[in-house]
Amino acid sequence: MPxxxxxxxxxxxxxxxxxxxxxxxxxxxxxxxxxxxxxxxMRALLF
Length: 47
Fold this sequence. Notes:
Elements: H1 17-46
């Protein structure tokens, strides 16, 4: 299996809804944690 997959064909069906929601459920808290960590670090530098 290649590390980087090519984009899907134009007529290819989208990924199943469960898979798309799983990615969203995984990335949302990680993104929020990264933003929180950056905000905390910036605040620590100012005070």
